Structures are given as C-alpha cells and as structure tokens.
Model the fold of this input.
Amino acid sequence: MIRVTIIDDERIIKSISKIEGSDVLMAWAQENEHTPGHSIFSGGGEIFDIVDNDNVFELLVRATLNYLDLKKIKLAYCKNEALFDELVRLGFTKKDGICEVDVSTFFKPCCSHK
Done:
C-alpha cells in the first residue's frame, strides 16, 4: 500500500527540489522501500512540480489538495505547463497560463444518490 506523507522540513525538500521557501511542502509517496513520486507545493496553494515515477500523479494531487483543504485554502493553482494536461484531466481549469481548481469543491461528489 502506498502511503503519502506531507513533509515540511526545508532540508529534506532542498535535497529533492530546487524550489525553496518557508512555506514549501512536499507530499512524499512511499511504498515499502520504493518511492513512486512526490509533489512540491506551497502552503498557499501553488503546485510547483509533481514527479511521477510509478503512475501516482492523481494520488499526489489528491494528497496535496487534501492538505490544502484541511488548511482552509480555497484555490489551488499551477503555473508549470508541463503538468496542465494531467491536471485538466483531474478537474482543473486552464486559463491565462495558470491551471486552477476550487479546493473546497474538488472532493465533493459529482451526483447525489437517492
């Protein structure tokens, strides 16, 4: 089973990514000794990069958005055009060079069961 951990230790993040800042976080996927990927994002809602080594893109996006939702961040966005196609597939909207999604509605069901 893949486990995703949110990491806020700047030293660890710097060892993986060139993106720096006091509010930069990482969603780190781990399965036993294997690391299928990670997401680098800010606590303010910007997704900087997603490294997907084993088809975990959606898992990393969901973990990232879940963290932001728990922190009451309303909008997540990405300026990294290399990620746009996959983000749009997951429900993000692309406009003016930014891909964004309303975090508060991302996890809501698409239909009601009666």
Summary: The helical segments are 10-16, 57-70, 84-89, 103-106. The first strand starts at residue 3 and ends at 7. Strands lie at 3-7, 24-31, 34-42, 46-52, 75-78, 93-95, 98-102. Residues 81 and 97 are 8 Å apart (CA to CA).
